[in-house]
Amino acid sequence: MVTGCVDNARARQSIVQILENNNHQFTPRTWYLDCGNSRRSGQVLLGSHLSTKPDDYQFGALGCFRLPAPIIQQPDLLIPQPGEIEDNSLSCEQLASLNSQSLSISQRVAAEAFDYLLQLTTGKLRRFATYFDLESGSGQSLYTTQASVIQAIHQSSN
Q1: The pLDDT value given to residue 72
Q2: In this structure, is residue 87 part of a structural domain?
Q3: CA 39, 91, 82, 14 torsion-angle sign
Q4: What is the extent of the structural domain holding 147?
Q5: Which residues contact 98 (CB under 8 A, 6 or more apart)?
Q6: Which of 119, 121, 128, 134 lies in the 20 to 30 Å Cα band around 31?
Q7: d(CA 98, CA 8)
Q8: pLDDT tens sequence across 47-65
């Protein structure tokens, strides 16, 4: 299990490289839990494979042993943000504003990530993506169903 709590596309790309060793025909050797946030919202995404082919995520009597990688679920994680680009023209004040976070966002991301790990190790994990917004108090999870997995794969091709 690799848990990524990084704030830039280059670091995520480095983490994703380890998933290249997972073969879509076998149970994954490595899982990637991506934890990310902006000022008042965040996401926790779990996955193991880089394939965008729905047939690589077949469900059987015991469920699905492979899930699309976080970058397949949310491809924009690999798009550098303005502050990451070396030749940006942002001032220090603008960079600080872009990277500001509420006092409670990190705790919320950490709590979600911990619950994912706990549920995964006890065999009770039923979701692979959770998005939340502190401003509105809303949250949404994608559950480990054939329809949700296909929805996540299709998002990467749009």
Answers
A1: 95
A2: no
A3: negative
A4: 2-81+92-157
A5: 81, 82, 83, 90
A6: 134
A7: 13
A8: 999 999 998 888 876 677 8
